[in-house]
Structure formats: C-alpha cells, structure tokens
Amino acid sequence: MASKIPSRSLLTFLKEARRAHLQFISSGSPSPIYVVGNPSVDLDSIISAIVYSYFAHNRAHITPIRPHVPLINLSNVAAGSELRRLRPEFVKALWLCTGKSESEKWEDTPESAGDMLREHIVTVQDFAKHLRERNIQEQSADAVMVDWNAMPVRDGQRGRGSLDGLSSVVFQVVGCIDHHVDEDFLPSAGSLPSGQPLVVKQSGSCTSLVVNTLRKKGIWHEGDKGDTGEAQVAQLALASILIDTANLTSKDKVTNHDTDAFAFLSLKIHNDTNTAHTVTTPYYEQIHETKQNSLDFLTVDEILVRDYKQWEEKSRGESVRLGFCSTVKSLPWIIRKASDSQRLLDSLRALCDKEELDIVVVMTAFTSPARDNQFCRELLVYAAEGDKKNEVVKEALNSFVSTANSQLGLADWFPLEDGVSDALSQDIKSTLNQDESWRRVWVQTNLSMSRKQVAPLLREAVATQ
C-alpha cells in the first residue's frame, strides 16, 4: 500500500500542476499527464479532473512517476474572471473549500477569483495560446479522461485523439474513469501504464467513481478526518456528488458508488457520518443556488452551449451531426430572455451553422415552485433547415419519436410553472412545433431519462436508418 499523502493544500497543488504544464510547453520536458473532462465542462467533469489529479500528481503508485495536470475543457474561455462568469458554481465550490484559508485567502468576486483562477487553472484555450506563443505547431501528450470516454477528433488508433480547440495536440489516452455509455474508443486495459485506471460503470456522479477508484487502489486512504489539503479535496468532491444526485435524494440517479463515496468523504471532513447530511445540506444549497442563478448573466447563445455535447453518426453513408444542449431553466424562461420563440429558433439556427449540425436537441431540467418544487423536464428537437440530408434526418427523427415516445414519456408541451401567459404558451406551441421543417417540443414525464440516456436513443435512430 502506498504511503499516506503529505500535507499539501489544494491551491498549492493546482499551482504546482500549472507550473508543470508551463515547463512542458517552454522546455520540451516530458509530457505531464493531462486529466481532462468532457466538453460540457459541468461541475462533475471539472471536479473529477481536479480530484484525480491531486492524488495522482507525482505519486509512486503510477510508474513512471509523472505530474498530473487538470485541464479544463473550455476551448473558448481562458482561466480568469470569464471562467467565473460562465461556471460560477465551480468557483463557489472552490471558494467554500479554500477561500477562507488565512495563508491563501481569496474572495468570490470577479477580480479576486479572476486572479486566483489565472494563477491556478489551465483551460484548453490557455493551452492553445501557450503553444502559439512558443510557435509550436504540433505536440504529443498523454491524458486520463474523466466523465467521458471518447475524444471528438480521432487519428485512427484506439485511444488517440485531439480536443476541439486544440487540434495541434495529439493525446494518447492512458486511463479513464467515466459513467457514460462506452463509445468504443479507449485502449485495452493491458496497454495502460501501471497504476492508471480503466473504469466505465454507472453512477450518479463520476466524482464518486473517482473517489472510490482512488480508495480501491490504496491511494486515498480510509480513516478519519484528513489534514487540511485532504479535507479540502474531500469537500470539493462532495460538491459535484451532491449536485449530480440532488443531495443524494434522486432515486433515479443515486447508486451504491455515490453513497459509499459520500460516507468516505464525510469522515474526511467531519469525522462523523451521523451528522454529515446536517452539515452538507447548507453546503449543497449554496452551490445549487449559484448554479440555478448562473444563467441570469448569460446570453441565450451562451446558455445553449454552457452544457453542450455533440456527436457524429453515419446514416446511409452520410455523416449526421447531433448537438445536445442541457440547461437548468425552463423553455419559457429561456424564451422570455430571448424575447420570443422565433429568437430562440434564430439562436438554434446560428448554433447549427457554427457547429455544422443537422439536429440540435435542447433538454431542460428544473424544479417548479408551482408544482411543490417538483423536478421537471422538457425536450425540444430541431432539424437544421435547408440541410441537404433533410430526408435522412427527418426519417431518423420520426424513428426516434416512434421508439422513444413511451420510454421518455413524451407529452404535448404545456407550461410547468406559474407566470407563463396564454400568449407565450401559444407562441411556444405554434413556433416550436412544425411538421415541414421538423421541430417538436414536449414535456418529458419520465424524469429518470437524462442526456446520458436520450442521446444514445437519438444516435441509434440516426445510425440505423
């Protein structure tokens, strides 16, 4: 069993990791291992990367010993105040874990948080900028994937690919921890370096799998409350687990992986599992409220790509590109922000043009005070207009509806919250339901079906045409 980790604050580690990245760029030293989450860059993805990196960084359990650098998968955002604006729930969680330390104190404000993020975080845009500054045209690096298992750009070999916004870097995947459907991209377990994980299994939060994998490998030791750094990382890990499982109350999401990780982390923070929920609920509520309010400061175009993923499938020899937008606000809320349904369609068209999409899906998931804070889902599917593959796309979408209608519990759309006028309701129904250009809007009554389940259904419908 590996020896217990020495005391090291979370911010100290993040600064060390960023320094290792800059040294790799500037001196041509051996590549660190970049730990990179998925392109939606949600809280689970970011925190999974940071937690795994913290324990794997220069640790003897992985041979050879190498630095591990969490790489935030944002291709158009640098670390700084803009990162805080776009991902305030991450910054809130990080501040609650580290910001009150006397020696490393910082404030959750644009100025203070912006400075802290620039000194401690590396995004994909930062990586690309650092390469341009050094006039580096091509680079190779190793990566551990967390919260996803297939890179968008593949070079023909299993486990080798590039990230959007960083096409000049070819990554060799040397490990993976994920809770999504296996995309048949990863290398075999036998080809991985000693000590690196290959874990793809169902859980409410990927962070839970990260925590339990570290425990199983003897890297994160069982026991009572940890030192400052360990407690900080444990508290950060709890943030994404609680958010992804609705404070461990979502029966459709919570698994044994999540409850086991929660119990372990609670001991590391409070040294007492009996009072853990009493202590963690206010923590969860602060982060949840920040996430719920995060869209107030974004444009409609930014809302659509804030939690976004895309895939490409072959249908009758044609490549069909699918984009999925997930948001924590209702369609009426988004449409009011846009001004009307037609403006939302304009934003969807612009997204299709920019990403060369044939189909875009908007999934909303929110709680409705009008329904006793009941969790609700809506689904909007839109086919790009004027697409040469229009008939293939329409047939695929008709097949999707036929197959998925009962599984998703699709119902004709109706307002799920108060304050939606009859005029707005009619505008949504008439504008977002069109046979000729194929767009549909529904209330999704099967609340257990998130993007992790809906995306494979649509992808299969496209691929089997």
Automatic annotation (TrEMBL):
<dbReference type="GO" id="GO:0004309">
    <property type="term" value="F:exopolyphosphatase activity"/>
</dbReference>
<keyword id="KW-0479">Metal-binding</keyword>
<keyword id="KW-0378">Hydrolase</keyword>
<dbReference type="GO" id="GO:0005737">
    <property type="term" value="C:cytoplasm"/>
</dbReference>
<protein>
    <recommendedName>
        <fullName>DHHA2 domain-containing protein</fullName>
    </recommendedName>
</protein>
<feature type="domain" description="DHHA2">
    <location>
        <begin position="284"/>
        <end position="462"/>
    </location>
</feature>
<dbReference type="InterPro" id="IPR001667">
    <property type="entry name" value="DDH_dom"/>
</dbReference>
<dbReference type="InterPro" id="IPR004097">
    <property type="entry name" value="DHHA2"/>
</dbReference>
<dbReference type="Pfam" id="PF02833">
    <property type="entry name" value="DHHA2"/>
</dbReference>
<dbReference type="InterPro" id="IPR038222">
    <property type="entry name" value="DHHA2_dom_sf"/>
</dbReference>
<keyword id="KW-0464">Manganese</keyword>
<dbReference type="InterPro" id="IPR038763">
    <property type="entry name" value="DHH_sf"/>
</dbReference>
<dbReference type="Pfam" id="PF01368">
    <property type="entry name" value="DHH"/>
</dbReference>
